[in-house]
Specification:
Blueprint lengths: L13 H4 L6 H10 L4 E8 L3 H13 L1 H4 L2 E5 L37 H7 L3 H7 L6 H14 L4 E4 L3 E9 L2 E9 L4 E9 L19 E3 L3 H5 L9 E5 L3 H13 L4 E5 L12 H4 L6 H7 L2 H15 L5 H16 L6 E3 L2 E9 L2 E8 L5 E6 L1 E4 L9 H10 L21 E4 L4 H4 L9 H19 L2 H4 L11
Helix pairs in contact: 3-16, 9-13
Bound molecules: flavin-adenine dinucleotide.
Length: about 475
Amino acid sequence: MTAHPLLPPVVVDERELDEEQVTAHERQVTAEHGGADRDVELLAIGAGPSNLALAVALEELAPGLARDCLVIERDREISWQRGMLLPEALSQVSFLKDLVTLRNPRSKFSFLNYLHAVGRLDQFVNMGSFVPYRIELADYLRWTAESLSMVEVQRGRACLDIRPMWTGGTLTGWSTQVDGGQTIRSRYLVVGAGRDARIPEPLHGVAPDRVIHSTQYRQRVGALPRDLPYRVAVVGAGQSAAELFSSVQSDLPQCRPTMVMRSIGLNMYETSKFNNELFFASFVDEFYASRPDARARMLAQMHHTNYAGLAPGLMDSLYRQVYLDRLSGRPRLQMVTMHDITAAREDGDDIVLELTDWRNGAVQELRVDLVLLGTGFSPEMPTLVRHLADSIGLSEIKVTRDYRLVIDRPNTAACYLQGVNEATHGIADSLLSVLALRSNDIVQDILAHRAAHLDSSGAAQVSAPVTAAA
Ligand SMILES: Cc1cc2nc3c(=O)[nH]c(=O)nc-3n(C[C@H](O)[C@H](O)[C@H](O)COP(=O)(O)OP(=O)(O)OC[C@H]3O[C@@H](n4cnc5c(N)ncnc54)[C@H](O)[C@@H]3O)c2cc1C
C-alpha cells in the first residue's frame, strides 16, 4: 500500500501508539508479571467499570476471594472510553451511579471519596451538577484501581484466548493465554472486556488506516498532522457521531467534515424520568423474568433513551456550529441525511463512499481522505466470548439471572459475562447504572457456587455470603 499524502502511516494498535507514554514504572509492572504461568481462583478480563466494580465488591464482601483475584487490562493505563475522552464531554449518568454507592453508600471507593481524596470536592459541589466530566470519571477509575489493597490489577496484559479445562468430563477451570506467552489458570472467570466496535459492512474492505472508529479516535487523530485539509466523512447519527463531527473541527482545523446518516436528521435522547426508572438495577429482575418477545418489545421502545440520540447540550452547540459555518459564507460543514453507504472503495489516494438516497435510489459519490465511525458497537456477543463458547461446545450463549454462563455439562468452575447481556437483562446492562448491584449478584453467585461445588477441604475456605457492606 502506498502512503497517502495527507496521512502518515497509522499504527492501528493503540497500545503501540501509547508506547512513548509508558513510564519506567509501568514497564517494570509489565515485565514483572510476564513469563511464569500462574494459578488464581478468579481471573477478571478487562479493567473497565464492570470489573473494577467487581473488584470493589470482592474487597468489601469476600476478602478471602479478593486476595486470590487477578484483573488483567490490555491497556497500559486504567481509563474509561479512551478513544472518546474529549475535554468537555460529560457522563450521562449521575455520579451516584458510580462503582459502589448504590450497593454500599458508605464505601471508601465512592466517587465522592475520590473527589475528597484529590481535593476537588468543594469545586464539584459548587458546580451544582450531578454529572461528572468523562475525564474525571476516567481518573476515578484509575484512582479506584490504585486504591484496591487485595485484588491485583495488571495493566498492559491482553487476554488472547481462553480455553476450558476438563477433568474426566467435568469442567474444572479456565486456561487463559495472555500476550507475552503466559498462561493464567483460574476456577472462575469474569469477562468484562466491553463490546466489539461496529464497522459497517461496505467499509470492511477499506484499508484500516483510513477508517477510525470512535473507540480509537483520540489516539489516532492525535497522531495526524493537524493543519492539513483532510476531507472527512463522519458516519452515524448518535451521540458518538455528533461528538466526532464536532471535535474533528478543532482537532483538524483545516478539515472539511461531512456527516452521513441514514436517519432524517439528528434526534435527541428521550429523557423521560418515568422511562428512566427502567434503568434501575431493581428492574433487572422484572426484565429477566419477562417473555422473550416482551423483552424485545421493551428494548425497542427504549431504544431512543440510549441509542441514536444526542444529549440536549450537544444538539444545541452542534446546531450553532452549523449555523455559524453557513453564516461565514465559506461553509465547510455538510450533512447528508437519508442516505445509506452502499459501497466503498479506494481510488488512488481517495476513499470513495457510494451513498444511496433511500427515498429515490439516487446514488452519489463522496470522496474523502478519512472516515470516522460513530457507528457504535456490535449487538452480537464479542468475538472473545464467541470463541470461548465454541471451545466449550456451546450451541447458544446464555447467562443466568446472576450473569453465569449456562454450561450444560458437569462443572466445578464458572464463567460470568458483564456488559453484554442487554437482550436478557435490559437496556442498562452495558451502562454504569447497574454496575454496583450487578457486582454483588456475581460475587454472591460465585460464593454460592464454590460452596456447592468444592470438596469439603475447599469448601472450608469459602467465606460466608455477605449481603451488607463489610
Ligand atoms: C463514548 C462513550 C461514552 C459512554 N458514556 C456513558 C455514560 O455517560 N454513562 C453510562 O452509563 N455509560 C456510558 N457508556 C457505556 C459504557 O459501555 C459503560 O459506561 C462502561 O464503560 C461499560 O464498562 P465495561 O467495563 O463493561 O466495558 P469497557 O468500559 O469497554 O471496559 C472494558 C475494558 O476491558 C479492556 N479489554 C478489552 N479487551 C481486553 C482483552 N482482550 N484483554 C484485557 N483487557 C481487555 C479494555 O481495554 C477496557 O479497559 C459510554 C460508552 C461510550 C463508548
